[in-house]
Amino acid sequence: MTKQEALGKYLLRLADTNLILGQRLAEWCGTGPFLEEDLAMTNISLDLFGTAEALLKYACEVEGKGRTADELTFRRPEREFTNILLVEQPNVDFGATILRQLFVDAFDYYHYSELSKSSDPIIAGVAAKASKETTYHLRHSESWVIRLGDGTEESHQRMQNALNELWRFTDEQFEMNEVDAMLIEERIAVDLAPIKAKWLEKVIPVLSEATLQIPENTFMQRGGREGKHSEHFGFLLAEMHYIPRAYPDATW
Amino acid sequence: MDTTHFEEIFEAKLARNEMIEPKDWMPDNYRKHLIRQISQHAHSEVVGMLPEGNWITRAPSLRAKKILLAKVQDEGGHGLYLYTAAETLGISRDELIDQLLTGVAKYSSIFNYPTLTWADIGAIGWLVDGAAIMNQVMLQRTSYGPYARAMVRICKEESFHQRQGYEIMTMMARGTPEQRAMAQDAVNRWWWPTLMMFGPPDAESPNSANAIKWKIKRESNDQLRQRFVNQTLPQGELIGLTFPDKGLTWNEEKQGYDFTAPDWAEFKNVISGNGPCNRERLAMRRRAHDEGRWVREAAQAYAAKNKRYQAVA
To answer: What ipTM does this complex have?
Structure first.
């Protein structure tokens, strides 16, 4: 694998996680628990699409085959998407949505802050912008997880159920492979081990303040990096890809 | 209590084109009329998020997806300003939402039509938002201060919505034959419901007389409808789309187009609950409200415990 190829894979991986979470959050539009929260979720979704698009454009440039960000978004098959499994999980309810968000926001917060020092100026720029946005996202998801976990009996139970379901997808965020190894050496990518330590330091107290119990002996799921997704993913793509695939000659 | 003196002050303010503000005395009927109109307007924004929201996850490009998300989000924001404006008249948002969910309050009948293809997103922006702007520009000068000020913000965003809709239609009209057919079909379906948005003809509009007298409305339904037709026809011609009305002809004398009246029987039918999506729209709003109940209750319960996060829903 050349450095160029590693960079291409790295960008797609980052972009896909943003893109797919943006798509999931967009599903909430118009149906939030109240109007202000509806707007907050659309805002976060918009931020995620913005980050995804910037990274996809750069991935196209690195690839050098003349493909566009839209082609990467709307014409790639399932197995070529390398987002983490966590972000493709269904919304279920507001509790599961906001807990999934906490896990991603906390990761993004520390990750982008480090990545904004990347030796690659484009990645550094995208990360610096995303880092600012993530500060707000994290404040939002953190406060909701605490309020819902420590709210009513029902909200507590819903949050505990969500945690029991989603905890198994959290470790994949920190997974590294030869792509990371190559790019860390070049100071393009960052080592995720220290990010994991910070993430745990952030998330565990939040869950504890929310009076939630992390499930014990959880087997951690993985596979996103290799394009091995959950069965939910095909439906998400089918919906997202419908128009460009039904009218392949059209531009929109 | 004798209110003659207050009424004189109120009338004098209107005569001088001064705004009526929340603390001013106002006739009960003026207040009721405004609550009805502003809350209908707010409900229309919020229900209006649904037909367009229907296409966000299927938007065909990243740009289109971001624009549509931002647009639907704007509509939610408009709903918020308007609920807040209505609250200054002494009614709570909870009461207003309850009126919507129990079917007591109305919302614009246009949102009871389905969005069947992507071209409908273009048609809504171009035609439906175009029609809404006609009303809203006028309402920037409405006599009730909080409503007028909300409208100033709303108008700025609406003109962006109309442009994005027209852009979608332009791209499709100049695209493949399938895109073109889809765009034309959308215009054919949305044209008549859009004309109905201005409300019944002046002669049959039950609330219009008071609204004009109180300067809540400054132009009549028919005047606004005519202006919309005059503005929209050349826009359609420019991109090669036609309108499903054989009666459309230029009238030199009135310097405007003659056009056929929409089917008012259909209008009455839709506002009385029989449009293609009335049930679906209300069901979706009720579902969102019911499914969000545990979240709202939890936020209140947490706040009552007097802990860290006090900002509540």
So the answer is: 0.96
